Amino acid sequence: MGNSQEPQDFNISVMPSSLTPVHVAKAAEGLSLYDTASHQVSHFTPIKPGKVGIYVCGATVQSSPHIGHIRAAVAFDIVRRWFLKLGYQVTFVRNVTDIDDKILDKAAAAGQQWWARAYYYEREFTEAYNTLGVLPPTVEPRATGHMSDMIDLIQRILDNGHGYVVVDEDGKPTGNVYFDVASWPHYGELTHQKQTAEVDEAAAVADRMGPSVDAAGDDKYNPVDPADASPDKHDPRDFALWKAPKDTDPEDARWSTPFGVGRPGWHIECSAMSHRYLKDGFDIHGGGLDLRFPHHENEMAQTRAAGYESAARWMHSAWVTAKGEKMSKSLGTGLSVPSVLAEHSAWVVRYALGSVQYRSMLEWSDQALVEAQAAYERIANFIERAGVVLEDQPSREEVAAVSADDLPADFVTAMNDDINVSGATAAIFTAIRSGNTLLSKLSDRADTETARAEVRDSLLSVRAMLDTLGLDPLAEPWVSAGAAGGAAADGDSPEHSALEALIAEQLKARQEARKAKDFAKADAIRDALGEAGIAIEDGPQGSTWSLK
Fold first, then answer.
1. Which of 57-61, 86-90, 327-331 has the lowest mean pLDDT?
2. For residue 154, pLDDT beyond 50
3. Residue 271 burial by CB count (10 A; 0-12/13-18/19+): exposed, middle or buried?
4. 301 - beta bridge partners?
5. Which of 183, 260, 450, 490 has a Cα at 20 to 30 A from 333?
6. pTM over 0.85
7. Which of 474, 425, 457, 471 is nearest to 81 (CA)?
8. Helix (H, G, I), strand (E, B), or coil: what is residue 5?
């Protein structure tokens, strides 16, 4: 028989255990987060002490991921990492929508099985997440694996008098089931349909660009579901819980239920899966800003109408924009992740995606990537220089073990202020400047061992802060990818292999010279390579080269 024991190195941050002791940092007392429903930043208190449950809406796997999709994943990965650094056990659920009108239609047009198309693009998304250092979720449920949960939830809504089944002229169920918005007086609370009080500027921006029920009319970002345009609805606001199949739908995309054959509405799947894995009431529901309405408004309503508590707090990441316009496939401005990674290292792309607070619009441009590359070079230079002086680097285990209570106060203050990444990044570069000053004065210090200890403390602090943002260059996936997940290069030719071997010898000799503090020799090797058209870039993982 096989050994079913879990691997010994299975990360507790990925799979929390109730048997693992929880040590929440004192810094957690200062954490405040924005709540879309209240339009306010407020103190965060978990529902269960020491534990945090987060549900984030994942991808509808119809086609390849673009930068707009991955921005949301990176944003909530940073939120999750901060909770982990604060010492919380985090259960993180991110769903996959693998049954949808777009998936069915695109698969049919391409002559594909719909489930094969969905799985193909699901793997593309997983590859993009992994490449950009997004931690795997605790669980990643697929919609098609939770039909019974959805059917049970719809039945509860019907039993509570908040939904209705459409029947044919013979009184038989057609498969169309709708939520009865008029029966639920709380509808509109998330997106402030009934909002009358003044709100802050960030909320006003969200209302203008969200979109929300405040802005009636056609919505180019969230086109109307054909089922929601049905004349069988009692009220224009009613939305589909279950949908009768289209004539073009394949037989294996239909499920039998007490209210007819069909498939789920878009919104019901997240209510069913969040309740399945996080139970009745959980701390945070996250997603992209464009999901506020109708998806999250409808989700909140149907969950509560079924008799369950909804999320205690709703958080939404803003869009990636290009020249002020939302980046999306439908508008023809999407940038696929593979195409961006072909030209820029994964670390640089992640840095650019996470460079501003999650609620801020992120303008995607060549300049943003240039700035991210410059940031990498500053960071890598300090880590590499400090490592050479110390002749060692703090281990990954030591870096990960640094508590939030031991991080610089300005970094903690920024992260506790609604995950202010810009402020946190500023704290990192402040620490790097201080660390470089220590390095420059090291040879002048009489108390060399004390000075080296200060350099080491600075290095450990910088790497721990970077690790909190998923950017420690000596962590996975950057180490395995090399050169911080360098852009693709053609290294398969015999000529390239020969050149690689020759330059590797020169780089080895240069590294040995640097360790021996023979910097004149090290510089001479670099200059000779430069004259031959070889550019050398020093980083914490070593030196890399490229043709000028």
1. 327-331
2. yes
3. buried
4. none
5. 490
6. no
7. 471
8. coil
**What pLDDT does residue 313 have?**
97
For residues 362 and 318, the answer to whether their CB atoms sit within 8 Å is yes
Q: Report residue 305 as tokens.
A: 């109408």
- With beta carbons less than 8 A apart as the criterion, state whether 390 and 378 touch: no
Q: Which residues of 236-259 are buried (b: 16+ CB within 10 A; e: fewer)?
A: ebbbbbbbbbeeebeeebbbebeb
C-alpha span between 113 and 547 (Å, rounded): 45
| Mean confidence (pLDDT) of the chain | 85
- Reduce the secondary structure of 179-236 to three states and give it as a string: ECHHHCCCCCCCCCCCCCCCCCHHHHHHHHHCCCCCCCCCCCCCCCCHHHHCCCCCCC
CA distance 534 to 545: 6
> What secondary structure does DSSP assign to 295-327, as a single string?
IIHHHHHHHHHTT----SEEEEE--EEETTEE-
Element (DSSP H or E) covering residue 240: strand 239-243
Residue 113's alpha-carbon distances to 126, 145, 249, 290, in angstroms, are: 20, 17, 11, 29
The amino acid present at 509, given as its one-letter code, is A
Place of tokens 């000028």: 548
What integer is the mean pLDDT of 425-430?
Answer: 98
Are 444 and 435 spatial neighbours (Cβ–Cβ below 8 Å)? no
- Angstrom CA distances, 43 to 50, 172, 204, stand at 15, 51, 21
160: Cα separation from own chain's centroid: 36
Cβ distance 92 to 54 under 8 Å?
A: yes
Q: Predicted confidence band at 266 (pLDDT cuts at 50, 70, 90)?
A: confident
SS3 content of the chain, % helix, strand, coil (to 5): 45, 15, 40
Segment (H or E) for 270: helix 268-278
What sign does the CA torsion over 288, 290, 291, 297 have? positive
For tokens 């769903």, the residue is 95
Distance, in Å, from the CA atom of 163 to the CA atom of 157, rounded to the nearest integer, reads: 6
Q: Give how far the C-alpha of residue 117 lies from the chain's centroid of Cα atoms, to the nearest Å.
A: 23
